[in-house]
Amino acid sequence: MAEAYDRIVVPRFEPIARMTVEVARPKPNEAVLDVGTGTGLLACLLAPLVAPQSVVAIDLADEALAVASHRAGNAGLRNIRFEMMDARNIVYRGGIFDAVVSNLGIPNLGYDRTFLEARRLLRAGGRFVFSEWDAKLPEGFAAFRQLIEKHGTPSPSRSLAQVREARALVRSDPDANALVNPREVTERLHDLGFARVEVVSRTFTARFADVREFIAFEAAWGWNERELQEMSPDARDAFEGELADRLSKGRDAPGLEETWPIHFYFARPE
Residue 252, class by beta-carbon neighbours within 10 Å (0-12 exposed, 13-18 middle, 19+ buried)? Predict the structure, then answer.
């Protein structure tokens, strides 16, 4: 899904990534680690600002890193090092980064280990900056989720059954739910040794030409692609019709608009 994600999702995430950079305030020659870089959007925004120092950008998805490498090369950026690595077990020695940053890339499960790794890796006076969704789902996300469950195939393939099981695990996990709650995230950061924690909250507007473009956006995340593939034609028609009705209700203007609440965290170790 890396190429579809980069083409469809990443452009809508760029304003969030730019705000993450603004909060992080990178300076020339600072060593910065980008956690959960995906297809490299944040790393490519950071690289010109910290040159001649390099940005280290990590992710577990090797295909996403391949797309990220192409993005950096096409932009003429030579000061990014992409590494396939788990954000919960970062194999660098401690105290070598001025900033650890992430744009919607903190893992839902085991994120406290990522917080501990960020604290270990930061130099004295360093900062940990990341963006994260709010607990309240945007209207389109909520409608999409409800209607996928309503119209999804009752006889899933083995791989779709595994996707559903994994999705249910993430959605029911207390820690995953805590990650979208600023009060709980702030408390966890304090508990793990970050003395100063600030939260900046913003809303972003995402626009879609029609319901099919919104469906393509949702499918590009990966969770829902197989659900859509295995829907019967009749179920797919009903799904699209109900989703269009839900998202266009009360709107006179063409297209769809989503409001996304995002929190930005700035934390310094003790």
Answer: exposed
pLDDT band at 1 (very low <50, low <70, confident <90, very high): confident
CA separation for the pair 266, 197 (Å, rounded)? 6
**Domain ranges for the chain:** 2-136+174-203+261-269, 139-167+207-257
Q: Residue 250, by phi and psi: left (phi above 0), alpha (psi -120 to 50) or beta?
A: left
* Locus of tokens 């996990």: 173
Bond into 154 cis (ω within 30): no
Architecture of the domain defined by 2-136+174-203+261-269: 3-Layer(aba) Sandwich (3.40)
* Start-to-end CA span in the chain (Å): 40
121-152 pLDDT tens trace: 999 999 999 999 999 989 999 999 999 999 99
